[in-house]
Automatic annotation (TrEMBL):
Gene3D superfamilies: Pseudouridine synthase, PUA domain. This is tRNA pseudouridine synthase B. NCBIfam families: TruB. Its EC number is 5.4.99.25. It catalyses: uridine(55) in tRNA = pseudouridine(55) in tRNA. GO terms for molecular function: RNA binding; tRNA pseudouridine(55) synthase activity. It comes from Streptomyces calvus. It is an enzyme of class 5 (isomerase). Residues 243-300 form the tRNA pseudouridine synthase II TruB subfamily 2 C-terminal domain. The keyword Repressor does not apply. Belongs to the pseudouridine synthase TruB family. Type 1 subfamily.
């Protein structure tokens, strides 16, 4: 009798290659893990590389909650050129000599884009406007506005400023930057807005995501390596790393898994998703505090 292939429930942290969409990576992982139950937490643009969190089997139920966590990036912003996509994938729409832009002006512009800000996402993005993807409207030449939305840029640092000459002969400045930000922040929109503030235009030429929540590049594996050896972070370990932990005894564990709303300790009020563990470290559920009681978000036991 042939043994049925089983893949453990858990997360796979992929170091996404450039040129792949997030959906391409999911499709590849379905083949590697031999299961249809694969999803991702938060997309990465095709140009970008780095940490993409995938959920396999029951861990797909964690993904919507993981997508909301803080993210960290390393990137290169080119000052002196605008593009239609706000990154190097799109055609150049305008050029301006950026050689006179000073480091002080750059730092002042970066400071304005740090903290709690209102950001207009890039027009060529997956944002839905009246139910239609923004990039679809843009490709059809439609004139439309995307409303600004609040995002938090916890840290925006410039490590290096390099003088360069673009292919069209424009004197440009390439900034090597790191950004720590909330979910939903567009790094290419930061590049666009910094360039606009400095009066020379700007776009993103390289982007590498180095962290999603608690999961960094140290835990990430390339698709080639995963093809050789599938490394899955067990669901309990993944949940313990990403969410506040609440340990309950056997009686509470039984009540919780039977749908009873338990009283929650005050320390979890307003904490968002909380991972509940039973005896022997069994991961039972994700819950959130609602009027003092545990409201189930997803049950795993």
């Amino acid at each position: 009798m042939t043994q049925k292939h089983t893949v453990p429930d858990g997360l796979v942290i992929v170091d996404k290659p450039s040129g792949f969409t997030s959906h391409d990576v999911v499709a590849k992982m379905r083949g590697i893990a031999r299961t249809r139950r694969v999803g991702h937490a938060g997309t990465l643009d095709p140009m970008a590389t780095g940490v993409l969190v995938l959920g396999v089997e029951r861990a797909t139920k964690l993904l919507g909650h993981l997508a909301l966590t803080e993210k960290e990036y390393l990137g290169t912003i080119r000052l002196g050129q605008n593009t239609v996509t706000d990154d190097a994938e799109g055609e150049i729409t305008s050029s301006a000599d950026a050689s006179a832009v000073t480091r002080e002006a750059v730092d002042a512009g970066v400071a304005k884009l740090t903290g709690d800000i209102m950001q207009v996402p890039s027009k060529v993005s997956a944002i839905k406007i009246d139910g239609v993807r923004s990039y679809k409207r843009a490709r059809e030449g439609e004139e439309f506005d995307i409303p600004a939305r609040p995002v938090t840029v916890s840290s925006f640092s410039v490590y290096d400023v390099r003088e360069a000459v673009a292919e069209d002969g424009t004197a440009v400045l390439d900034l090597v930057v790191s950004v720590v930000c909330s979910s939903g922040t567009y790094i290419r929109a930061l590049a666009r807005d910094l360039g606009a503030d400095l009066g020379v235009g700007g776009h993103l030429t390289a982007l590498r995501r180095t962290r999603v929540g608690p999961y960094g590049l140290d835990a990430a594996r390339t698709l080639d390596r995963l093809q050789e050896e599938l490394t899955v972070m067990p669901i309990a370990e993944a949940a313990a790393a990403a969410f506040p932990r609440w340990d309950v005894d056997e009686r509470r564990a039984r009540l919780l898994t039977n749908g009873v709303r338990l009283e929650m300790p005050e320390q979890y009020a307003g904490a968002g998703a909380v991972a509940v563990f039973g005896p022997e470290g069994r991961f039972l559920a994700l819950v959130e505090e609602h009027r003092g009681k545990a409201k189930s978000l997803a049950v795993f036991a």
